[in-house]
Specification:
Layout: E1 10-17, H1 39-42, H2 47-71, E2 76-80, H3 82-91, H4 93-103, E3 108-111, H5 127-144, E4 150-153, H6 160-168, E5 173-176, H7 182-186, E6 191-194, E7 197-201, H8 204-211, H9 226-234, E8 240-246, E9 250-251, E10 254-255, H10 260-273, H11 281-284, H12 308-320, H13 327-333, H14 336-340, E11 345-346, E12 354-355, H15 358-379, H16 386-392, E13 401-404, E14 409-414, H17 417-423, H18 429-438, H19 440-449, H20 452-458, H21 464-482
Parallel strand pairs: 1-2, 1-8, 2-3, 4-5, 5-7, 9-10
Antiparallel strand pairs: 6-7, 11-12, 13-14
């Protein structure tokens, strides 16, 4: 046994290199009129300049530093998204070349991930997830002459279905986020197995000592020094400590003035002084497994604690694949960053802690849904049945159906026919009765969705099951017209 006073554990460090498809916060439908390329209006118009600042503050100095450390024998891994490769190739090829030098270094390892850093792994249909894995693999071969076999699966839990998709794509190991079940939260510093994959579990507390607590002067361990941190790792029980960190932490999220780069520079020698060997993920994955995480209450769909806003956005995104003509727009909207911003407080575990007000989360959700709804409505004209596409589209929050009872709002809303049908399953009887008496369902489907035929069909329906069945049959019929 290592890390328990005998031999220190090994350390496996990975870096997530990504630049999100930020939304244009000022987007309004009228700004797209007359434009052939709506994508430029949907997303941040200052993306090139903003990425340039991230490069100057973080990407370039951190990569130059890591190249020096790699030359001296330090080992680490890089997960580089397809979108950041695209942006750098178009705007900053010299930075892409610098990343290439680091990713192909003899002491580094390139990791697999979804091309768009996307939420596609949370969909019922995993075809997009599988497609993005292969897209990313092909890009890594083309750009870096490498075929990654370890997948960074840290934005949502791994499931039997995603594990199967990874295996089919030639992935042999996955890095998952710690804390997804009692066993992993308590004892992450081991290699596990899951559905035939080797699994490494990130140590969230030790990751967040760097990603979240490092600049906090109110922390009782501040200022954190590399030798102190290495000491913590040396006594952490287990075989191998996995740390997977957002690259922008170094110099951008946490400014250079805090000493974060000096900490990183001193870390390899501090680890060596404690007898800690750094290893690549593929090497850590070959350590004898502690057990099968499938035997614990570990990663699985039940551990996804989504907010109502996140759930609405995810459902709308999955439906939108067949409603948005521009696949590039749809895939940019799949970025995990969008969904994270729809929660007042999202988990960190090696990422910057996201904590904002309820109003800020709602405003972001509203901006997101305005873009998605407009992209679907704009695409309807080219669909096999434009009327069917318009009936199936999502609508922005100002046109959503807000459920209420006789005395107060219910706290949830439907943004599409499908979401309305889903919500009719669990909405309380008094809420449904209230809306039926007022003919609210009829008016919303007629005026906001624009499906007069369906509106007339449900106008006199008061039974929950009958109401939902009528709407679902119409939805299924509309989809048939599009396929």
């Amino acid at each position: 046994m290592t890390g328990e006073g005998l031999n220190p554990p090994k350390a496996c460090l990975g870096f997530d290199i990504h630049y999100p498809c930020y939304l244009n916060p000022g987007f309004q439908p009228d700004v797209v009129k007359g434009k052939r390329n709506a994508k430029e209006s949907y997303f941040n118009p200052n993306a090139k300049e903003d990425l340039g600042r991230v490069i100057d503050r973080s990407f370039r100095p951190t990569t130059e530093l890591l190249l020096e450390l790699l030359d001296d024998g330090f080992t680490c891994a890089f997960a580089i998204s397809g979108t950041v490769v695209e942006h750098l190739g178009q705007w900053y090829p010299e930075m892409l070349e610098l990343f290439s030098r680091a990713a192909t270094h003899r002491n580094a390892e390139l990791l697999a991930q979804t091309y768009y850093h996307s939420v596609a792994g949370q969909f019922a249909d995993l075809q997009e997830f599988a497609d993005e894995i292969l897209m990313h693999r092909d890009l890594m071969k083309e750009q870096f002459s490498a075929a990654p076999t370890t997948f960074a699966h840290t934005d949502y839990p791994i499931t039997p279905a995603t594990a199967e998709a990874l295996t089919r794509a030639g992935i042999r190991a996955a890095i998952i986020e710690g804390g997804e079940g009692p066993a992993l939260e308590k004892d992450p510093n081991h290699t596990y197995t899951y559905q035939g994959l080797s699994v490494l579990v990130t140590h969230c507390d030790l990751s967040d000592d760097i990603a979240v607590r490092f600049p906090w002067r109110g922390w009782d361990k501040w200022p954190l020094m590399a030798d102190q941190y290495a000491g913590w790792l040396s006594v952490s029980p287990g075989d191998c400590i996995t740390l997977f960190l957002d690259y922008r932490i170094f110099g951008d999220v946490i400014g250079q003035e805090t000493g974060i780069l000096e900490f990183l520079r001193a870390l390899p020698s501090a680890l060596a002084a404690e007898g800690i060997e750094t290893v690549r993920p593929s090497e850590a994955a070959r350590l004898p497994p502690r057990g099968d995480i499938g035997e614990t209450p570990g990663p699985g769909p039940e551990s996804l604690q989504r907010t109502i806003l996140q759930q609405s956005a995810l459902e709308a995104l999955e439906e939108a694949e067949n409603l948005v003509a521009d696949g590039g727009v749809w895939r940019c909207l799949l970025d995990t960053d969008h969904i994270r911003r729809m929660a007042m407080r999202s988990t960190s575990c090696g990422r910057p802690l996201h904590a904002v007000s309820h109003q800020a989360t709602y405003d972001y959700f509203a901006s997101f849904m305005r873009v998605l709804s407009h992209a679907e409505e704009r695409s309807a004209a080219s669909a096999r049945s434009p009327k069917a596409a318009l009936s199936l589209r999502c609508v922005p929050p100002d046109k959503a159906f807000y459920f209420s009872s006789y005395d107060r709002p219910a706290g949830y809303a439907a943004h599409s026919l499908q979401e309305l049908a889903n919500m009719l399953e669990f909405a309380p009887d008094d809420v449904i009765r209230y809306h039926v008496e007022r003919e609210d369902f009829y008016r919303w489907i007629d005026q906001a969705i624009g499906d007069t035929r369906l509106a007339e069909k449900i106008r006199d329906r008061s039974d929950r099951a009958e109401l939902r069945s009528t709407i679902q049959k119409r939805i299924d019929k509309l989809w048939k017209r599009l396929r």
